[in-house]
Write a structure and sequence with these properties.
579 residues; alpha/beta; 8-stranded parallel β-barrel; 4-stranded antiparallel β-sheet; 19 helices
Amino acid sequence: MDKIDFVDQTIRDAQQSLWGFTMRTEHMTPIAEMMDKVGYRNIATVGSQAFTIQVRNLNEDPWERIKTLSGLITKTPLRGSYQTGSLSSFDLSTPRDIIALWIKRSLAHGIKSFWICDYQENMGRFRYFAELAKAEGAEIVPSLMYTSSPVHTSEHWAEKIRMIAEVKHCVDRIMIEDASGVITPEDTRRLIKVVTENCGGLPIEFHSHCNAGLAPLCYLEAIKAGVTTVHTAVAPLANGTSLPATETILRNARRLGFTSDLDEDALTKVSEHFRKIAEKEGLPIGVPMEYDLFHYEHQVPGGMMSNLVRQLREVGMENRLEEILEEVVLVRRDFGYPVMATPYSQIVGAQAIENVILGERYKQFTDEAIKYILGYYGEPVVPVDQDVKDRVMNFPRTKEFLNWTPEGYLKSVEDIRKEIGPELSDDDLILKILIPGKPARQSEPKQKAGASAAKPSLSGSPSADFPREFKVDVDGEVFNVKIMPADNGAIQADRTEDEEIKKKPKEAPQGAVLSGMAGLVLSFEVKVGDKVKAGDVIVIIEAMKMRRHINAPHGGVVKEICVPVGDIVAPDDIILVVA
């Protein structure tokens, strides 16, 4: 076939890669009808990972966004996503019926197509949800998550593709996804040949990021090799760690003799709209990346790289980024060369941070790393290093995950609703599970985020040209902070009502336990009055979408719990008092 179709990633993967999911609904609605006229095969929109940011940072109703977009974009099918093992985080703990409910509610609000990134770990689970979604009328597009390593051979990829071909009754297309941007033009040709020979005739899509600067070349090789659908973004949100620009790929594809049904006048208007948004909001515009050979060794995806830098900055170790990346290379090798894409890249990256910060390799493990090594995320391409496996098996927390199954995995939606909130609608129930401790609906929705992540300690009145608004990034969630002079001349952050719940003592009381990292408080493993020993797990927080343990630095009795579950904490926040 000579005609090329395009899946638009401007308001999904591109804005994640360059803008950290901070694109607001008001940025999309004025141009949505024009996007519908461009002639894309699909327009991708955000999934559950971004719902949290929409609620916490933008004070928006994510369901309302999808419903609004589907009312404006009526000809082009909207593509959403779901994970087969989790609703949002990288843990495998979401009840099956909640994921099924997510699929049904997404379709009810206007999603027509689903991208699935985690089919390779559990084909039985993939088939269950794919058949359910197909029965509801959805298009199903699993992703072959690409990576490069000494053991990811053509035979490996052939096996993975045949797994999809075996369930093609519930699959419509296959997407080759290179989240790290590490595929080369030569490997593109080889991989597409393997996929074509083993996919049973399923149409192939191609999706790669520009981290190493080669993606635009790889797209042309993919087109020449028979790919009929490519994923791109309009120029202002392309390049960098994002995807190639639609305008560039379209122009070059035509040079090769291929055609497209895209309306270039409409495409130009869409591109101009988002360029104006970027300029008005001070958001970055993507630029081509220089080739970096080291990127092929660590393969950290672009969106994750910013989180990695942030984690180091919070503990005063930003100058050790290179060391962390070198450790990522070693951890990935020790872990059997997992694909550096969700959730595996986060599991590897979090473990590398633990190793470097603690000054000892594998002294501490995240829950996800333990479960990965125990095989709950699927078998690695090659076995985990035996020494690392022995360390995990001797790690005290590991015994809690032997013969582990997700608690309440087969619990019904109604039983879960009774526990969480009998009055909640299906949409609000999902939001409550995604965002514990946060109201399912905002009483006064705002167009701009008003949450404050930090309180400036400046004094005196700012000059006229002093910046009055800042973007503060906490573990991938971006807070817009507005400052203004108070009566006494001090500058204070504008806080939202739910942040006033958290009151930190001005001076740390005896026995205070600090968070030590930024993240979302998931649970307290102790309550007031409990006796704890040094080293006991007392709090679990989510940082980089990973569950991280906070251990008691000393023994004593829990005197006070200082923050609520569901709150976001900074590294120096007091979370409880043990004395």
